[in-house]
Amino acid sequence: MSLVVHKYGGSSVADAGKISGVARRIGKVKDTGRSIVAVASAMGDTTDELIDLAHTVSKEPDPRELDLLLSTGELVSCTLLTMALRNLGYDAITLSGFQAGIRTDDMYGRARIFSIEPDRVESELAEGKVVIVAGFQGITDDLDITTLGRGGSDTTAVALAAALGADRCDIYTDVDGIYTADPRIVPDARKLPEIDYEEMLELASYGAKMHPRSIELGAVNGVPIYVASSFTEVPGTLIHRVEKVRELENRVKATGIAYQSNVAKITVRSLPDRPGIAAALFEPLATRGINVDTIVQNTSAERTTDISFTVTRSDLSQAVDLVNAILPDLGGTEVVSDSTLASVHVVGSGMQNTPGYASRMFRILADGNINIDMITTSEIRISCIIREEQVSEAVRLLHDGFQLAEEG
Q1: For 117-174, what is each residue's pLDDT tens digit?
Q2: Lowest CB count within 10 Å: 38, 152, 161, 228, which one?
């Protein structure tokens, strides 16, 4: 018997009416004879409301207690969804992340799944039940509840699909697929019928509508991921391993424009230019779970150098405090930061090895009077750090300049 995993985002289960609609959609799948596991996020803005509530009683909520609090949001939506399914006559059961066997590390607020023990899920499926699993959460070896970070329910769903050997993982949300750019910014952005894991991972890492870890898991385990709207029957976007022939045919084309508005830059000045200084700077940040993106080290002058790097704005305060604490050991002179930045990214297979893409991006931004603060690249991505107030215009200019509204 085939198995499919669904994931429903917060907007899809925002109220009782929408939960009932999701239950009917799940029921239609069950009526075809397929087994189904559904992962649900918290209702609407519940997670934000719980965070705000925590900060009303504590300036700095304890990470362990905050994760335990936030995990309750998914339990509410999942149990209501199970009740709605039972009301329609389907045998269904809710499982928390712990009950579903989702094991994580102990990095509260951004935990990573390291294993899934799906015995309970499989036994409930074997009894013919629809299994509803609380997304966004797991449990440590010490039996503490953790959360996976923003968009973590995507990761829960794909990880379960991999562990259960599902045919596909369907991600239902408030958009009807993956677009060449954010359609809220670029009205003529084009929906992609399919996209390769590699390109989608780059887009997801820089603001597109998926959690990057979910794409990694899909790619490693060969799980096709289908992104579609929970409110319509309009065809969505399939994320999978695109056939090599088609990949080669499209190798010189840009696929999409991504952006992030929550970028902050930290610069450490006058560091000694010697082996090991970068490791001494970035290892403590990694230990604290602070993700560093773009890194630029200036050319040495008088045996000293400046190192600049970007973090998310939410990590800025913690990162600055940490770097200031180790500054005397590093031998630098000062730490400065800028929290008013954004990033814009052109993504497409093989761009770095195709002459002209970088210069074309830089010319488009220059003609739009958009200054570039930092630049970084991968094989399929060119990224620029710019002023936050210019990011929407940059996305529109690049989408038009690379002619992404056009088919083929």
Answers
A1: 999 999 999 999 999 999 999 999 999 999 998 889 999 999 999 999 999 999 998 8
A2: 228
Residue 18 sits at the vertex; the CA angle it makes with 164 and 134, to the nearest 5 degrees, is 35
Q: Report the phi/psi class of residue 229: left, alpha or beta, with left for phi > 0 and alpha for psi in -120 to 50.
A: beta
Three-class DSSP category at 338: strand
Say if residue 355 is exposed, middle or buried (CB neighbours under 10 Å; 0-12, 13-18, 19+): exposed
Amino acid at 227: V
Which DSSP string do the residues of 106-161 spell out, in sequence order?
S-TTS--EEEE-THHHHHHHHTT-EEEEE-SEEE-TT--EEE--TTHHHHHHHHHH
* 342 SS3 class: strand
Which candidate, 49, 146, 128, 44, places its Cα nearest to that of 92?
128
Give the span between the Cα atoms of 71 and 258, in whole angstroms: 29
Average pLDDT, the chain: 92
The total number of residues shown for the chain amounts to: 408
How far CA 238 is from CA of 29, 38, 94, 252, 308, in Å, comes to 18, 18, 28, 21, 37
Of 179, 234, 221, whose CA–CA distance to 5 is shortest? 221
Nearest-angstrom CA–CA distance, 136 and 155: 8
Q: How far apart are CA 33 and CA 156, in angstroms?
A: 24
Predicted confidence at residue 165, as pLDDT, reads 95
Say how many Å lie between the first and final Cα of the chain, rounded: 38
How far is it, in rounded angstroms, from Cα 203 to Cα 403? 17
CA pair distance 138, 159, nearest whole angstrom? 12
Please report, as a single letter, which amino acid is at residue 268: V
Mean pLDDT check: name the lowest of 8-12, 46-50, 341-345, 376-380: 376-380
Distance, CA of 66 to CA of 53 (rounded, Å): 10
CA atoms of 75 and 43, how far apart (whole Å): 10
Confidence check: pLDDT of 215 > 70: yes
Judged by DSSP in three states, 61 sits in: coil
* Rounded CA separation 129/122 (Å): 10
Return all residues near 150 (Cβ < 8 A) that are at least 6 apart: 211
CB 213, CB 220: distance < 8 Å: no
* pLDDT (mean) for 89-109: 96
Q: Where are the alpha helices (DSSP H) in 132-237?
A: 152-164, 197-205, 212-221
